[in-house]
Design a protein that fits this description.
Elements (H helix, E strand, L loop, with lengths): L6 H9 L8 H18 L2 H13 L5 H20 L4 H7 L4 H6 L2 E2 L8 E2 L1 H11 L5
Antiparallel strand pairs: 1-2
Helix pairs in contact: 1-2, 2-3, 2-4, 3-4, 4-5
Length: 133
């Protein structure tokens, strides 16, 4: 949803999750996702909650701890500045794969039910290669 700039919808979805029932590995995913939504939203109360969750999370694997620390840095920066930088948004949401492809598809009432947004594909390629090389 963040890739599609549906930040409010993503926030509503994550607010409906019952954190207390999540196993450890799913709770880590929850915290990372909550932090990404907080960064994209720029809302101080959500950023403060994300900071607290990240500080309280002791990730078991080094790769997850690196991600936790990077998100903690980006949440703290966003909280201090009042808005998320491009770097904070980029670091909070992994690029590539389905993340990139998700912006190319439209789920709207059509004959087949699914469409392809060629304009979004062209814009993505233009952003990826701004010099036209």
């Amino acid at each position: 949803m963040l890739y599609q700039k549906r930040i409010d919808a993503a926030a509503t979805e994550i607010d409906n999750v019952n954190r207390e029932t999540l196993p450890r590995h799913e709770f880590e995913d929850f915290v990372f996702t909550y932090a990404a939504i907080a960064i994209w939203s720029g809302k101080s109360e959500r950023l403060t909650e994300a900071k607290m969750l990240l500080q309280g999370l002791g990730a078991a694997e080094p790769i997850f701890n690196d991600r936790r620390l990077n998100l903690l840095l980006r949440v703290t920066e966003t909280l201090a500045s009042g808005s998320a930088s491009i770097e904070a948004k980029t670091d909070s949401t992994p690029a590539g794969g389905l993340a990139t492809a998700s912006s190319f598809f439209l789920l709207q009432p059509t004959l087949a039910g699914l469409g392809i947004d060629f304009n979004e594909m062209i814009e993505h390629l233009a952003r990826k290669n701004p010099e036209g090389n």
